[in-house]
Amino acid sequence: xxxxxxxxxxxxxxxxxxxxxxxxxxxxxxxxxxxxxxxxxxxxxxxxxxxxxxxxxxxxxxxxxxxxxxxxxxxxxxxxxxxxxxxxxxxxxxxxxxxxxxxxxxxxxxxxxxxxxxxxxxxxxxxxxxxxxxxxxxxxxxxxxxxxxxxxxxxxxxxxxxxxxxxxxxxxxxxxxxxxxxxxxxxxxxxxxxxxxxxxxxxxxxxxxxxxxxxxxxxxxxxxxxxxxxxxxxxxxxxxxxxxxxxxxxxxxxxxxxxxxxxxxxxxxxxxxxxxxxxxxxxxxxxxxxxxxxxxxxxxxxxxxxxxxxxxxxxxxxxxxxxxxxxxxxxxxxxxxxxxxxxxxxxxxxxxxxxxxxxxxxxxxx
Length: 366
Hints:
40% of the residues lie in helices and 19% in strands. It is of the alpha/beta class.
């Protein structure tokens, strides 16, 4: 399951976004530090293909893929030194896959900005600095322990020490570890620390309704330029917390009509999830039977046994083969029976790399 942790300054639309995406009813009043305890919500991954498969199979149950969102209290400049509510809530997003940084890119005199004026480039730098200092606290402790073990001849510690030192030097400058030039092997050594600045970043740019369907405003343009100039491995997804809130109160049919009336192709939720999948190299396959039609999230490049393991470790361990058909062929042939008769459903072995949209039936023996 994809897990996204939401961060940002107070009052930029974090909790409004969380509420709209999850319909969780978290408080979102117009004053700083409204969120105190972390909010956690589950969201179904929108995928029209699932409904089409279910229409053919008519299963007893339909199970979409899911995404978890974690919303924490807003950070402020000096959070690492205890300003505002401090950075104690950052621990709640260390186990997430992607950091969603909500950035305010709209002007509104009725909505307070904690730093006095709207400036998404400055806000980005403030949050990045606080995340780096939070990571630094973790790395400094690890460095002390690793150096001590390396001195008494611990081979693993001696291998790890250069990576820890490199990370420490970068973080001391208030820079994220994506700037540290760490090799894949060094990143793997740091992985158990769950460092925030090693995670992909999704900038959720909170803009006006007009910007979503028309010309981009100066604040969003400035944010794009800053991210591009830094070469940060990140994506920017414009959204409107106001529109997402209105969408959350509508039926599926009404949402499509409302978006069309605004000239917007898709909801912010859809675009955030797609961007998260893209950043992490994820995609979807389906299982389809009378009991259940279900979407499963796996990494691009995963083989059939690995995909089977997403269901249960026994499936991967005892994998024999996988009956497989593409989504397009499955729908065109109205399900498994005709697809098999026409030869478009095939039996795949251990080396098969699962494609996005594959419909699969696993055979295994444990």
